[in-house]
Design a protein that fits this description.
Layout lengths: L19 H8 L6 H20 L3 H14 L11 H14 L2 H14 L10 H7 L6 H8 L3 H11 L5 H8 L3 H29 L1
Length: 202
């Protein structure tokens, strides 16, 4: 399976009028058609994974598309968008590396004391709270329950809709809404607590 080029790249041009769902169906008889799905989504899936597991992103991205290719016979068009299906696979793989992800966020939190911003968490900060471009955000993310973190980061980086997140995680849309609300509330509360503690020490 190919790896995406370094740095952000635009999705590959798609054949006019050919949907993701049609490509999956066509790939059942013409496996090469799945390469278009890879070209469309590899950059954004890799970006999502790199923000969650860092150096493991290359391996997990390859595994995501390998599992998708092998499991495409079980994909039902109309049941879930292909994009959501791929991010669901990627998120399940991330869960195997939960400790690595938590350590990564803790490391960001420690390192942020020496730099003003972190581009790795920039997108999260912009969507969670405009004030949060600082190390406290990484600590707040590390403290979230796994199910809340999954929803928050699927909403933040690939900007999946509530319905797409629900399809990716196999939960009702109402559950997505409540988890996202809870995650944002917890992150903001933790950031506020840390800000007040710093002011008290000062």
């Amino acid at each position: 399976m190919r790896k995406p080029p370094a740095g952000p790249v635009p999705p590959a041009e798609s054949p006019p009028g050919v949907t993701d769902e049609h490509l999956i169906v066509e790939s059942l008889t013409t496996p090469e058609r799945f390469a278009v799905i890879f070209d469309r989504y590899a950059p954004v899936v890799h970006g999502y994974l790199s923000r969650r597991v860092g150096a493991l992103a290359d391996d997990l991205m390859s595994e995501t598309f390998l599992l998708a290719f092998r499991g495409r016979t079980g994909y039902t068009p109309g049941r879930a968008p292909v994009r959501a299906w791929l991010f669901g696979i990627a998120t399940n793989l991330v869960r195997r590396h939960a400790r690595d992800e938590e350590r990564r966020y803790r490391a960001f939190g420690r390192a942020a004391g020496h730099v003003e911003t972190t581009t790795e968490l920039g997108e999260v900060a912009a969507r969670v709270d405009a004030r949060a471009l600082r190390g406290e955000l990484a600590d707040a993310l590390a403290a979230l329950p796994r199910e809340d973190l999954d929803v928050l980061l699927l909403w933040t980086y690939p900007q999946l809709s509530y319905a797409e997140i629900a399809a990716a995680l196999g939960v009702p849309v109402g559950t997505v809404r409540s988890r996202l609300h809870r995650a944002r509330r917890k992150v903001r509360a933790r950031l506020d607590d840390q800000r007040l503690s710093a002011e008290e020490i000062a």
